[in-house]
Each structure stands twice: as structure tokens, then as C-alpha cells.
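Can anyone check this?
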Amino acid sequence: MKNPIQGLTIAFVFLTVSTLAQSWYPITSGTTRNLNTIHFPSSSVGYIGGDDSLLLKTTNGGLTWNPVNYSGITFVGQEDDILNLQFLTDSIGYLTAGPYSGSYKTVDGGLNWTLNTLAGNNCYNQGLFFFDPDNGFVGGSGCFQGELISRLSGGVWSQATMNSSTWDAQNLIVDIDFFDAQLGLAASKSGLIFRTTDGGLNWDSIPSHPNMNPVTSVLMINDTLAYAG
């Protein structure tokens, strides 16, 4: 999901066990670029993607961040932002760039990236979710149509069926989350939330709250409770 953090700082929350009180304090990121997405595969290693091809990495739990001098990502046009990322381990991860620069995979901690060859007409990409290196999803939209989701199953990409999708390429899928292997939700800039109950083969649209347009994030708590923003 793209949730820009303006300026120089990142906020972290820590739980004080003795008092059960939460407190936030800023940590310098070392850049003035917008920070769009953050993910920690472990307690010590974390990654941040930002505008202007920025990729940051921490190996000490977020206390300090350093730019990653990576290769393999081809940015198309003037939109050279890293929009979303997810790491399955400290070394294996995925990101979406652009929004029309594609989705990529790394197996060496972000140093080198290879392009995912998605199925179908995915011109714009942003949302992603992966169970493991061989099973996951990348969401976006088509060149001249609305919401699209590509599904990786057993290492093979295919195009999911999107029921009631819009026909505006700006209405791309920006965030995806799953409760289990079958039940998942996807947020669209159109203000719709898409739902699958068959492991991502088919997605049906659900209207969100009238004030939520666009929907930029979604989180599943269990099979009946979810949050969106």
C-alpha cells in the first residue's frame, strides 16, 4: 500500500511490558523523499520503499537505516517510486514499482531484483501479498481497464477473474490481505473492496463506506472482522 511518510523521520512504537504503556518516538531515515511502504520479515531486518527509486534497509530493528545499492529494476517513465513491498524472509522479498514499472523478486536481501512475468494485461501494479515464494498475488489495473489481480500458484502466474471491476485504469488494486488460503480482500482506488473465497481464483466487489474513496489499505483479523482505510 502507498502510505507516504513525509520528511526525515520514521515513528516507532514500543511496548513497555512493565507498564503496558505504548510510546512513540521518531527515528531519522536519512532522506527527504516520501516513504511509501515498510515491512519487517524479522525483529532485526526491515525494508522501506520510497519515492525516486529509494530502498532502505535496517539490520538493527529500525534504529538506523541505510540505502540499498540495488540492481535489476527498470523504472518506466517519470514514475520511479517503490510503492509496496513484502519480505518472506530476511533475504526473499517482492516489490511493486512505478506504478507501471512492474513487480520484482529478490533472493539476496534486496541487492538484485528480477521481473515477475505476470499473466494478462497488468499495466499498473501496486498491491501484493505472498504466502511463500511460489504462491501469492500482485494487484493493479489494465492499460485500458480497471482492477486486475495476477495469481501465482505453484510457481505459475495466471489472471484471476474480477467480477464487477471498473473500466478506469486509475482504479488499481493497491492492497491485498488474506486471512487463510481461501479468504482474502483487496482494496481498490475506486472505493470498492474485492473479496475472494476460493483462494484468489475469483474476486467479487463489495461497496465500502461512502466516505472511503479511494480505499488504500485493508487488513483481515479473522473470517468475519476486517479493517480498511
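Reply from J.R.: I decoded it. The CA atoms of residues 123 and 142 lie 5 Å apart.
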